[in-house]
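A favour, since you know our structure tokens better than I do. Could you add the entry underneath, on a fresh line?
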Amino acid sequence: MDTVKLLAAVALLVVGIGFFYFFEEYALLARVLGLLVIAGLAVAVALQSTAGRAVWDFAVSSRTEVRKVVWPTRQETIQTTLIVFAMVLVIGIVLWLFDMMLMAIVRSVTG
């Protein structure tokens, strides 16, 4: 029965998208609102299945985990960004020098 519910949700989305393009002579706002209503119905149907409930539980758990994260301060973010830029610059210069050295070796070998 879960497969039927998920197929019904997908069918609702397909029909909603079809209606969105079929009624293109109507105002965009009306078509978007209609599409949102149909998408909401599709989500409601999908949430009635076991897979839909599992996805919802995962989303709720993810939101809970994001709240537990200790985000860096502005100063820490700026410092880390500057360190990354400096390291990219240093590595770029080292690779450029290495390339110049290899080019000199190739030129001396090939004449």
